[in-house]
């Protein structure tokens, strides 16, 4: 049985600065980085031992530069979230 003392224990954390996200992604306990692309925003999620840290980027050029700045040894998974019409356009 688990006992939680705080309301935000094990909750995901949002990072607002790119520099802070890069430092978090380079930590020893960072296991993987996921990139979720949607129409408006690109979300970078880094899984550490205790928390999942998220950075939201609204500029696609900044997102591409940030992807190139990630540590080379990290496990990277990129997901594209398309609407129904976008998927139909892709498979024509």
UniProtKB/TrEMBL annotation:
One of its GO terms (biological process) is translation. Pfam families: Ribosomal_L38e (PF01781). One of its GO terms (cellular component) is cytosolic large ribosomal subunit. GO terms for molecular function: structural constituent of ribosome. InterPro entries: Ribosomal_eL38, Ribosomal_eL38_sf. Keywords: Ribonucleoprotein, Ribosomal protein. Belongs to the eukaryotic ribosomal protein eL38 family. This is 60S ribosomal protein L38. It comes from Punica granatum (Pomegranate).
